[in-house]
Task: structure prediction
Amino acid sequence: MDKKDLTPIIANGEKDKLAKGLSRRSFFMAAGATGVVAATSLGVANEANAQSTDWTQPGNNNHVIKLQGMDKFAEGAVSIDYYGHCALKITSPSGASIMVDPWRDDPSGAWGLWFKQKFAETPVDITMSTHTHFDHDAIDRPVSTMVLDRMVGNFEFADLKITGFADKHACVAPGWYNWTNALKEFGAQACPPNNVGHMDMVVYVIETGGIRTLIWGDNRPDPGPEFWEAIGEIDVLTLPVDGSQHILSYDQGNAIVDKLKPKVVIPTHYLNETTTYTLSTLAPADEWVKSQKSFKMLDKPSLQLNAKEISGMQKEFLYFGHHAQTA
Result:
């Protein structure tokens, strides 16, 4: 194998002739963690195996069983807890909980150190990820009964309804840091239709307590008309806009807000000093938030939204700032 050949290889998990007992998948997992030379040595001496460690997590599914047996659900507020970056825990009025996009540092080390600690092992009923980038896919960290990883289609449980819409990751960096150039250096296509697989995205609409929340993830700013038609009316919109304009520019974010006309907007994917290092190249979202007609700087990493109370709001920005749950 030519170490200078960076042509992507399809890792299908099958054993090949790289080394006895070493698959392409396990080879690249080892290479990302210890370097190509170390991975090759590892393959000669030991068989590299990847396995889930979820069976070691504490707790059990008693809460899910309780919710499963209910035929009437409480009315009331929807709770939203912010864990930094794009990670949000949404809890329904009945207590059913979802963690969306828990983060981690890039296991290969190629993108540097982004986060100040490991993601909290938070008990939730459902863990969800919008796409496979490291800052969105630490699905092993929350202590959850169910994992809906890049789910497309419909899922209903208790007083939750989740709909996943397949689309594409933003593929042109609008800000000062041209992170999309890295894909070109490895000969990979960032933009559709021939984009590399990790640039696929799933946008979620989570319905509970009479509130429809849209989890934008890192989705592109200009999906087709069928996307907007499918999404429908949105009450709460989360958008990845920060001062560096890493995923969406201010103008792109404003255009999405104007198109969807949500009652509430929650900024995500920005530099939160509680969880995130400046090595991430991100910046706070203060400038974008303060340019809006109506905004509130929240004083803690959690809020409760009641459908009746927010019904009179229009494009109200609720900003967690540097607050974040860490446990």
Summary: The first strand starts at residue 15 and ends at 19. The mean pLDDT is 87. The radius of gyration is 21 Å.
